[in-house]
Amino acid sequence: MNTDRYNSPLSERYASKEMQYIFSPDMKFRTWRRLWIALAETEKELGLPITDEQIAELKAHAQEINYDVAREREKEVRHDVMSHVYAYGVQCPKAKGIIHLGATSCYVGDNTDIIVMTQALKLVKKKLVNVLNELAAFAEKYKDLPTLAFTHFQPAQPTTVGKRATLWMQEFCLDLEDLDHVLGGMKLLGSKGTTGTQASFLELFNGDQATIDKIDPMIAEKMGFAQCYPVSGQTYSRKVDTRVANVLAGIAASAHKMSNDIRLLQHLKEVEEPFEKSQIGSSAMAYKRNPMRSERIASLSRYVMIDALNPAITSATQWFERTLDDSANKRLSIPEGFLATDGILDLCLNVVDGLVVYPKVIEKRLRSELPFMATENIMMDAVKAGGDRQELHEKIRTLSMEAGRNVKAEGGENNLLELIAADGAFRMTLEELQETMEPSRYVGRSTEQTEAFLRQVIAPILAENKDLLGMKAEINV
To answer: At 277, is the pLDDT very low, low, confident or very high (cuts 50, 70, 90)?
Structure first.
């Protein structure tokens, strides 16, 4: 770690080594060389005088980036692509004359960006699927555990802990759908020249349109893609970056929502994120166990959501066939969006895998509110026993307000059941009322909905992506 200059927290603290490599100089410049090889092979196969010896020489040095030569050359020419063309040529004297033949800088720059984003999306997908897998196990384990549900963060009808987890999962499922859509539509730029017209190839191939039409499909196949974008200016449409960033922002929003819920539940002491044996929660208050991992998820998620504006504005402001005000912004916004999302998903994996649930606290809070929620059932039972529905409704309303005052103004217990038992209109004893206070009676179809969701939605996703499962996340606390 350099201590005399700025170090990005994304690489020092948050993102995995795997994601960092995808956006590393080695990945970038080795991909440039793969693209130059693919171009040379394509041109040779289509009839240009390029030899097997030249191709072999290019392949022999594809992984050995002579950074020192490229850096020195860039000081002279102030052009990164031409500096690396030169450096590659130093290593490949027989092939230097055909490196980058007919191409413009965006041939390596933009195609590499697409390749890198595609690889990064695949890693994001892997982690997202594993988050769903961990949440599925959590939901299955707690599908029957009743808990107080909230609307407006006010007590509402009960749900189960597992059912609540399905709400988090459904958000991530929507993100996975978006990710698969964008990933499935990723195409290379191909080799289209300075303004996207392939004019240089008309010259190289003596105006042979049929041959030129083969260039992009052949390059795409060699690089592992189904096709190239059919038209472009000098660059691929920056709308692609916008679509990619929006996928990341969607994942961030889902993670943020889940982390907020966990933070609130930890405040209520109903659940608790993992806490290391020697971890310190506060420098001043030794007893504290702060939900710092969930807080970090929220923090990084806000960054990713805002970061998605960068590609959108860049896409909107591109001039005609090319303008370079995308470059500096893109170098920051795309890698950092992925690095932050990678860190978010690692944190999600870590938190869900070690999430602790406290059933007794959950039951205590639920039972303290349950009498209010059981009033409709109590009223219906009283009507069956001969009571008047309208009269009983008014009594329930009045008694509920009295019990609420006892809790909030007096600091007492919820005594609604005692108040109802004391009113002869209900014709029910306290013991009979207490028998109605079984929490599972009030969770509706929470268990059944959870089981159906896991079976019908999650199981097919996990089966389809079984080869991606099994990863664990290591985080820097």
So the answer is: very low
